[in-house]
Each structure stands twice: as C-alpha cells, then as structure tokens.
Amino acid sequence: MRAEVAADLGERDATHIRTVVRDARVSAAAGRGLLMFGFDPISFVLGVAALAHAKILENMEVGHNVLHGQYDWMGDPALNSQNYEWDIVCHSSHWRRTHNFEHHSHTNILGLDDDYGYGLLRMTASQKWTWRTPLQPLWYAILAIYFQWGVAIQDLKLGRWFKGRMPKGELAQRAAPFLNKARSQLFKDYVLFPLLAFWNIPRVLLGNALANLIRSLWTNAIIFCGHFTADAQVFTKAEVQGETRGGWYLRQIQGSSNLEGGRWFHKMTGHLSHQIEHHLFPDIPALRYPEMAPRVREICARHGVHYNSAGFWSQYLSVLWRIVKYAFPVDRRARLSAPQTA
Amino acid sequence: MDLALQTPRKRKLSQLLRSPWLRPLNDPDAWEQILGALNPMWSTRDFPARVLAIVEQTADSRTFVLQPGRRWPGHRAGQHVVVEVEIDGRRLHRSFSLSAAPRADRTLEITVKRQPGARVSGWLHDSLRVGDMLRLSAPGGGFLTPDGDDPVLLLSAGSGITPVMAMLEEMHRRGNRSAAWCSCMPVARRRISSLRAPAAARPRLAELQLQVHHSAQAGRFDAGALARWLPHYRDFQARTCGPRALVAEVEQLYRDAGVPQRIRSESYLGRVLPPSAANDLAHRVHCSKTEQVFTASARSSLLGEAEAAGLRPAHGCRIGICKTCQCSKRSGTVENLRTGEISSEPDELIQLCISVARSPLELVL
Question: Could you say which of B20, B24, B323 has the minimum Cβ distance to residue A100?
Fold first, then answer.
C-alpha cells in the first residue's frame, strides 16, 4: 500500500503543502496586522483567531509533517526535514530525536517512549504511583497550557539530571539549541511585534500570548487523543523483545487512535486525526491518510484487530477520564496480568 | 548579491537585515513566495528564465532559447548553468553548458540531447513549451575561451559540442584569430554556415579549419587522428570537451608534447546503468564531505558498512522510520530494502540504514 501511494506522489501533494504554507503565512500576516493596527475588540478577537490558526497550521500540517520528511521527495530545500525550523520553542533537531526516533519507533513502550505521559503523568496501571500522582489533573492542566515548553525541554532529560545521572556539561550542551530557539521565539512574540505596534504594545502582547495559549491547548488535546484514549494499549520492553516487522505495525495500530471530523478539522490537526495511518506510514504526506484509512480499517477488520476511531469529544473525554482514574493508586500487580487497556 | 563584493557599510546593513532576530519579517522563503506571486520573473535567490523559442537541432537534440530576468549577472562562453525543473512536484537539477556566447539582447541558449530513459532531458523535450519558466543558477565553470592571440583548437565529441559552440561564436564576434574546430557531430557544419552567412561582410574567423569526424565510418576519434589532421596542434590553445576517455587521451598528447598549460578540458561520464543481476558485488563508496572511501557489499546496509569501516554517520532508529541517517547521494544506484525502490538519478536523498549499494556511489557524508 505504501509503495502504491509513494509512486503516486506528485504535483497534487506539492501544491497542497505549498498552499498550506501560503495560507499559514497569509493568516499570520492578517492576524498580526489586525492586532497591531486595530483598536476595537472585534479586530482583537479576529486577530488572535487568525494568528492562532496560522500557528496551528504551521506547527501541525507544515512543521510536524515536513520534519517527518514527508516532502523530502520534492527536493525543495525550504520543505526539507533536515533544514526546516518551525514556529514553536521546540528546536527541530530535538524534535527529530524525541519524536521521529524515540516516539515513532518505540511507540507506547514504557520506559522507551518518553511521550508516554511525558515523565509527568501516570496513564496506565503499570506506571509507578508516587506522592505527586494524585495531583496529576493539575499537572496536566499546566502541561496543556505550556505544552510547547513541555515539548521543548523533553530532550533535555531533566529527570536524569535531577537524579544526578547526567553531568552538568552534557545538560548545557543539550540545552544550547533550546535556549537559542526559546530566546528568538520569545523575542519575536513579546518584543519585536509589540514594539512594532507602538501605541498598541499591550494589545499585541496579550494577543500573541492568547494565540500561543490557544495553539498549546489545541495541539495538546490532539496529541493526547493520539495515544491516551481509553482503548490505546501500552507495551513493556519485555513484550517487544524480538518483535517482528509485522509486530511493529500491529503495535503502531494498537497504540494509536484516530479522530473523526471534516476536512478542515483534519487539516487543523495536521492529519494527526489519522494517528493510526501516520504511525504506520510516518513519511507519507499527511493528506493521503484519509485516502488510506478505509483500506487500513478493512485490513484490521479482516484480522480482528481493533481500529480505534471516534469523534474528538468522546476520545478527549476518555483521555481526561484516564488522567483522573490513574491519579488513584490502582494496584500495579493485579493490573499487569490483565490486558493493558484502561 | 555576493556579500564579499559589498562595501563594509552595505555589508553591515545586509547582515542586520538577515539577522535571525527579525524572523519572520525577513524570512527569505516567504519573500521569495511573495515575489514569485507578483511576477514569476522576480527572485532574490536564483534566476528565473522564460523559454522564448525551441529550435530542433537534430532528431534527438533541441536548443532552448531563454530570456533571464534583469538580475542575470552575464556569462562567458564555455560556462554552464544548473537548471532546476519541477516534474510532478519534484525539483530536479541538471547542469547544462550555455551553447551561445553572451548576446546584446541578453538571451541564453542551452542545447539538450535526449538521453534514453533520463527524466530531465526527456521532460525538457516532451513537456517544456515556449512561454514556460525554468529556474537557473548563476553561470559557473572555468572552461573559457583562451585570451591572447594564439590559434585555437576546439575539439568536441558528442554533447561536448555545446560549450564549444558558444566559444566559437564568441571568437567569431571578436574576429581576430584563427581557429580549428574538430567535431564528431555533423551538426557542426550547419553551425559554421550559420556563422559564416553574415561574415560575408565581415571576414572573421577566416582561417577556420573544420574537420567533422564520422565515427561510424572512420572509427573512434582518438589522439592519433588529431595529430594526423593537425600536425601543428602544439601551437594551438586547445579546448576539449567530450567523454572522459577521449579528453584524457588528448591531455596526454599535450603533456607528451611538453605544453600541458595549453589545454583546458571538460568531460562527462556516461549515465550510470541500472543494477545488474549480480547483486552480491561489493562497491566503492566515496564520501565527499569527509573525503573517505569505504567498500559496501550488497548484503548489508550502507549505514552498517560505513560503521564497519570506522565512519560514524548520524543515525536513529535503524529501521527506516526516523530519517536521521538520511543523506544526499551524488551519483550511483542504491536499493531501498524497505520499499524496494531503486534510486539511480543523481542528487536523490537516501536513508543509509535501509539502503544497499548497487553500484559505486558518491555520498554527501
């Protein structure tokens, strides 16, 4: 199936990604313009919406997918996974390591996939319960609000440093790209554009902060729906010892969950609403996932594999429920023998 | 514009304008998109050019007359450009010699021979129409017409004729020297007569001797044939362009005659052939960045072979998912073990961890 789609890649995909890039730029310019030159509440709301829309499009449909190398075949240096730098505090080199490598090859394996709870949340019974766990709805709220920062510092492995398992020099080395990126992102949204607005400084500051907040909440909700819904399974290191190629694909399907919605909704999620297809074929351009989905679903049905797909709210509520549920110390051992679903 | 050519004050201003602190206001990709939307001939990066005319030269070669934008820096006869085309969403780059000398109306020419099975030359022949746009690099290359008053020998074989045609045109316009042109292409005769026609009024290139060699009748052209045809070749400044074997032979001839400084040449390799059934061969891999060489068997991935040879390429998952090990392949053929795809075009991206060598390779590593 992959070969068939890969052979069909062409002008349509190139036009799609260039159109999205252009839309994101136009939307960003419109949003910043409205915030800068407007003075009424309506233009403020529109400006924030346009800027948030631009950031979401740029991060999800362009940044995430370009960094996966989905458009490397085009040979356009501006859309190449090794060159692209996105509008978010997370440095793209860190992202390529934590996301493309750690998360995508070790999907949902406890201890290997850092995205599983981000070292902060207990999402399954086999994760350790500590004194911090009861407060995890609060931790989750903080993570959702500062999601871009959470993602950005993920590769610093601060947990290891706190436990004294990482020398300071290594931390500094790991932190350098992040600090540079964070500085320029903060400068852009909270110094450069507010200053350019002269009399409108507070308005632009507030608008940019709100747009960043909306982006964080949205991306966080979509990403958590990808792997933490009620039926998404987890795996242990022991289970994946000697895993075959078929086993790898099976794990990707069982560990991921899809969201259903219209075309615009899919685009705003960067087609992460097709998390299952994305995990099976991370380097196929995302707009192809909706076309591949019926075939993946049919194959799953034929082999009796559960294909986890539902609407956004039902999936997201099941994620929130899981966060609340595992805040309580459910017995680890009793749970380990049972199937690893929620 | 080249930074080195600017005054210090201009350079400072230009550095300030490029400063990362001003992102996204100075995002070059965004500006490029805006300029391109306003006028397809505008660009700050490369040189868009419109196809003005397409001239059939032979059954399988065509000349494309191009009009570049105002920023075109000008070229010298013998130089080449990298042409960027977009075929089915893929950007591909090929280098072509400019086959005409600089002209007053600033038009350019490239002459392209259709290579059987090649993507770009086939597309240029079949799909490019008058009025379409191409993107060009700045002209480059040091294969130029000689200065001074020595007689000039132009020797070309096959598609090596293209830069030589431009040189001849330039020399004809300067009109102050004698030249000999030996070509293994019959089309050369037509080219000469088109140059000679206006020359009735201006007797230039009067001493041009032309030799057209037909390999089919006279056998492969070699250095011996040259020496027979032009015994005083050592008095000539030679400019040679053609297949590597011929060029090497003629260079050797000049070295033996003790005048190696009188020859400049350019050569090309034949196309890399698709892989044969003999897949268990080991191939030589040249890494162009580190200038290292290793041997890769077809039994294990390029990543594994590079590591076995003591290199340390960046890598991640080793199963073809994360693309950390992706690198550009200059030339040669590899097979992707995950997808079965064969990559034999130049300058394609390959993933080292799941690719095996199917021919000698040059990698940007």
Answer: B323
Q: Which two tokens stand for residue B131?
A: 């009025």
pLDDT confidence of residue A156: 85
Long-range contacts of A209-216 (CB under 8 A, 24+ apart): A210/A48, A210/A52, A211/A31, A211/A48, A211/A51, A211/A52, A211/A55, A212/A52, A212/A55, A212/A148, A213/A145, A214/A48, A214/A52, A214/A56, A215/A52, A215/A55, A215/A56, A215/A59, A215/A148, A216/A144, A216/A145, A216/A146, A216/A147, A216/A148
C-alpha distances in angstroms, B190 versus B186, B193, B196? 8, 5, 10
Q: Are residues B263 and B156 in the same domain?
A: yes
Question: Maximum distance among all alpha carbons in chain B?
Answer: 72
Chain B residues within 8 A of A3 when measuring between CB atoms: 339-341
Residue-level pLDDT at B111:
92
Is residue A265 assigned to a domain? yes
- pLDDT value of position B193: 65
Q: B89, A105: Cβ pair inside 8 Å?
A: no
pLDDT (0 to 100) of residue B54:
95
Asked if residue A71 lies in contact with residue A231, where contact means CB atoms within 8 angstroms, the answer is no
Note the pLDDT of residue B199.
Answer: 40
Q: Does residue A47 belong to any structural domain of this protein?
A: no
Going by C-alpha positions, the residue among B76, B223, B193, B232 that lies closest to residue B146 is B76
The pLDDT score that the predictor gives to residue A265 is 93
User: Kindly report the CA angle at B356 between B351 and B359, in degrees rounded to 5?
Assistant: 115
Using a CB-CB cut-off of 8 Å, the residues of chain B touching A283 are: 321, 323
Supply the angle between the helices A201-227 and A136-145 in degrees, to the nearest 10: 130
Of A74, A87, A97, the CB nearest to B89: A74
Q: What is the mean pLDDT of chain A?
A: 89
CATH number, domain of B69, equals 2.40.30.10
- Predicted confidence at residue B194, as pLDDT, reads 65
Q: What is the CATH number of the domain that holds B205?
A: 3.40.50.80
Q: Looking at residue B201, what is its pLDDT?
A: 36
pLDDT band at A44; cut points 50, 70, 90: very high
- Which amino acid does the sequence have at B326? Q
Tokens of A65: 């997918």
Q: Give A332's pLDDT tier (boundaries 50, 70, 90).
A: low
Residue A56: inside a domain: no
Q: Does B342 touch chain A (CB under 8 A)?
A: no
pLDDT for position B276: 44
Instruction: Over range A270-299, report the average pLDDT.
Output: 93
In terms of domains, do B359 and B315 share one?
Answer: yes
User: Which pTM was predicted?
Assistant: 0.81
Query: Could you tell me the residue range of the domain that residue B245 belongs to?
Result: 152-268
In a domain, A8, yes or no: no
Pairing of strands B61-68, B361-363: unpaired
Q: A29 to chain B, minimum CA–CA distance in Å?
A: 10
* Residue B143, in any domain of the structure: no
Residue B102 domain-assigned (yes or no): yes
- Mutation target for A interface from B31, B137, B323: give the one with most A CBs within 10 A: B323
State the total domains in chain B. 4
Q: Which domain holds residue A294?
A: 88-337
**Averaged pLDDT, A314-320:** 93
- My answer on whether B104 and B162 are in the same domain is no
Tell me if A3 and B89 make a contact (CB, 8 A cut-off): no
Q: What is the distance between the alpha carbons of residues A334 and B261, in angstroms, rounded to a whole number?
A: 86
The one-letter code for the residue type at B238 is A
Q: Do A10 and B88 touch (CB under 8 A)?
A: yes
pLDDT surpasses 80 at B1: no
User: Lowest mean pLDDT: which of B45-54, B100-109, B262-271, B343-352?
Assistant: B262-271
